Amino acid sequence: MATTSDISRGMIIKLDGSLYTVVEFGENKTARAAAKVWAKLKGVDNTRSIEKTWNSGDSIHPVRVERKDYQYLYKDDTGYNFMDNETFEQIAVEENKVDAPQFLKESQEVSILFNTETEQPMSVELPDKIVLKVTYSEPGVKGDTATRTLKPATVETGATVHVPLFVNEGELIRVNTKTGEYVERVKE
């Protein structure tokens, strides 16, 4: 059995029958009272984000997870379909378990977290930064680059990303999948 001293960022714990991943944690100590451990938790099997406080030394229930590399194939009525890179076995995952489904493109490598107790997929994580091709963008006006003005651009997955004025249609850009923001232009 684990205690609050074992909490770490990214750990998945079971709390009130639901699974949560630890986003941030810390400890509050006061001179008179016992130390408290707090954590910001994001739901794995639900959409809730909560904060939880325990007394130092309280028991927690971590869930063993396994990370496997998969390749995105396609989307259909069953959800998003992925293939295991080693066994070529295919699985379907619901959209709410995919980090940033708007940035998924065919043949893209992703990591899928599995609950080792139930062998069920818990979440699909895209790489932090991916390269996408701009399929539509209004042309930038020459000389209008003094300020950091952004314009909407559509990428090959159909998502809209705000890019600087100098980015044109047909160029490759790097996008942060966690925030959906433009990072940089990529040379071919």
Kindly report the spatial arrangement of strands forming the biggest sheet: 9-8-7-10-11
Number of domains: 3
Taken in chain order, the helices and strands follow as EEEEEEEEEEEEEEEE
Overall average residue pLDDT: 88
Question: How many β strands by DSSP?
Answer: 16
Strand content: over 45%
Query: What is the correct CATH architecture of the largest domain?
Result: Beta Barrel
> What overall geometry do the principal axes of the alpha carbons give?
flat
The end-to-end distance, rounded to whole angstroms, is: 51 Å
What does this structure look like?
This protein is an all-beta fold and 188 residues long. Helix content is 0%, strand content 53%. It is built from no helices and 16 strands. The strands form 4 sheets. It has a 5-stranded antiparallel β-sheet with strand order 9-8-7-10-11, with no helix packed on it. The chain has a 5-stranded antiparallel β-sheet with strand order 14-13-12-15-16, with no helix packed on it. Strand 3 and strand 4 form a beta hairpin. It is flat.
A few lines on this structure:
By secondary structure, the protein is an all-beta fold.
Features:
188 residues, mainly beta, SH3 type barrels, OB fold (Dihydrolipoamide Acetyltransferase, E2P), five-stranded antiparallel β-sheet, 53% strand
Can you lay out the helices and strands and say which pair or pack?
Layout: E1 2-3, E2 12-15, E3 18-28, E4 36-43, E5 49-55, E6 59-60, E7 65-76, E8 79-84, E9 90-93, E10 109-115, E11 120-125, E12 129-137, E13 150-155, E14 160-164, E15 172-176, E16 181-186
Antiparallel strand pairs: 1-6, 2-3, 3-4, 4-5, 7-8, 7-10, 8-9, 10-11, 12-13, 12-15, 13-14, 15-16
